Amino acid sequence: MGNRKSRTRRCSLGPIRRRSTITASLLRWYRRNSRDLPWRGERDPYRILVSEVMLQQTQVGRVLAKYPLFLSRFPSFQKLARAKSSSVIKAWQGMGYNGRAVRLWRLARTLMLDGGGKLPGDTRALQKLPGIGLYTASALACFTFGKQVAVVDTNVSRVLYRLFPASVRRRTVSRNETIRRGDLWDAAASLLPKGRAKQWNQALMDLGSTICTARAPKCGACPVQAHCPSAHQINRTRADQRKREPAREGIPNRIYRGRIVEALRNLNGTSSIGQHQLAVSIKPNYRRGDRKWFRQILVDLERDGLVRLARTTTGLRVSLPD
DNA sequence: AACGCGGGGTG
DNA sequence: CACCCAGCGTT
Description:
The chain starts with 15 loop residues before the first helix and ends with a strand. It folds into 3 domains: about 15-35 and about 150-225, Orthogonal Bundle (Endonuclease Iii, domain 2); about 45-145, Hypothetical protein, domain 2 (Endonuclease III, domain 1), CATH 1.10.340.30; about 245-320, Arc Repressor Mutant, subunit A (Orthogonal Bundle). The strands form 2 sheets. Strands 3-5-4 form a 3-stranded antiparallel beta sheet. A two-stranded antiparallel ribbon has the order 1-2. Helix 1 packs across helix 11, helix 2 (about 45-55) runs antiparallel to helix 8 and helix 9 packs across helix 11. It is mainly alpha-helical. The protein has 14 helices and 5 strands. The protein binds a DNA duplex through helix 2, helix 3, helix 6, helix 8 and helix 9.
């Protein structure tokens, strides 16, 4: 793959000489500037998995604050699998995207049930597990099993697009600078320095998160600025017309969802709460006209495994699932 | 390909 | 206030 002669990849990234210079510069920079993150010192695949799932669309700073507590509460696949999903959802407090907690819990149960209690080592098998997509599978393969595979997250994606704009074409611009997926992963794979995938992937991530940032990148401090066609040319972030999300009185549904789960976390023990009392607590001006809307939110949450709904003679009661 | 999903930090 | 974040699953 690093063979200069038979490069038949679709997306050539230019002369091999310049690529070597870039990889060498970046690896050198990384040796002196790597972030010291707790999961980078871990060997246990479980502990790395937890960090990767937490890091899905969630900033490092927030994960740092929650990671140790979660691990002390659930130190292993087995402990996680034996726990009630409600306790996992509670431990997820403050992380956002609560569905990740449910999927992680389901993953642990799947593993204890028919996976021999251990993560598979290859990307393909990993991706079949709940909550593990292409990124997380690749990250696990590389960071815990030492596989020489590319790992492309939002940081890497941005760095590659800026460094190789001609080769890594941007197909669509959506929320994040989304790049045409195939090209991007191909480009990342063709860049991997032999035997250094782990350092290389983490170097790209660190560069993206500390220097080559989405807004106001610090090109003057960049180790590869001399090779970057985008250096000092990032003027403004794109107006990125966000689609409006489903909302009620200006507040997105997902915020109400978050409020509901948070309210249930704060109930004591196994208790549940009546639908109306819950509704009023998460939307103070709750009215009859909101009933259908609120019911749908609850049904969606139930589908996502985040709440349990119980029909009683007095009406609907809501709690965290067992 | 386009959505929906949390919630806090930043410019 | 709008953008941003170590993405994933569904449609």
